Amino acid sequence: xxxxxxxxxxxxxxxxxxxxxxxxxxxxxxxxxxxxxxxxxxxxxxxxxxxxxxxxxxxxxxxxxxxxxxxxxxxxxxxxxxxxxxxxxxxxxxxxxxxxxxxxxxxxxxxxxxxxxxxxxxxxxxxxxxxxxxxxxxxxxxxxxxxxxxxxxxxxxxxxxxxxxxxxxxxxxxxxxxxxxxxxxxxxxxxxxxxxxxxxxxxxxxxxxxxxxxxxxxxxxxxxxxxxxxxxxxxxxxxxxxxxxxxxxxxxxxxxxxxxxxxxxxxxxxxxxxxxxxxxxxx
Length: 283
Ligand code: 13P
Description:
Blueprint: H1 5-15, E1 19-23, H2 27-40, E2 44-49, H3 58-71, E3 76-83, H4 86-95, E4 99-102, H5 109-124, E5 129-134, H6 154-164, E6 168-171, H7 188-197, E7 202-204, H8 212-219, E8 223-228, H9 230-245, H10 252-274
Parallel strand pairs: 1-2, 1-8, 2-3, 3-4, 4-5, 5-6, 6-7, 7-8
This protein binds 1,3-dihydroxyacetonephosphate (13P).
1,3-dihydroxyacetonephosphate binds next to β3, β8 and α9.
């Protein structure tokens, strides 16, 4: 069923686990993620970022994501990731997304606060949740920019959360989008300070390449939403590749099944690590 992201993250805070937020580019990925959610009786978030709309137009994939969430057996929030423009954020809200991110991480703190507040006022009209980001997660969602990591200052996180009342706050603790060039060293000292001082659920971007141990530590230290994009795309591609090598694809529908399976296996693995399996009933 389609649910508000606020409720999913609230339950994750109560139950001390994190919800996987899986980026999707097509119907096969949507089906694979929801199959994993059903198999493990888990809440999940389906998301797409504004920079990915070149490949998957919002007016096409948005209704598909919402319809799939409505038809799902477990609670599913539909989230607009890294919203940059009010135009596209509004479009996502009109399509029925139950959460939007406004990414003002490149702005000075005051401006990020002011712009986030405008998006919160807009989202309120749809009873949708809002995620924001402070500090800078490295890289960019589609790998087109090499944004340097700028770790969040805990005092900024406190001020931001208090002044905006945002539903979820993405922080930068050494994490980056895309495949890491070297093993990520997460700043758990910063995360612990943020967790103590901020009531809002925290969000970890750049999930691909983070170790299971670090994921577990994050999920027990205030991180309630974990974004996974590259790992899904890579796993779908690898699964298709392996199936061709094994000669197990004979025709288009075998190819489609391989794509669904790649997204399914990737989502299943992450749900189990995040501890959100068997948490679908809590709502
Ligand atoms: P990855 O591509 O590193 O998994 O990052 C996903 C993400 O944070 C999307 O916002």
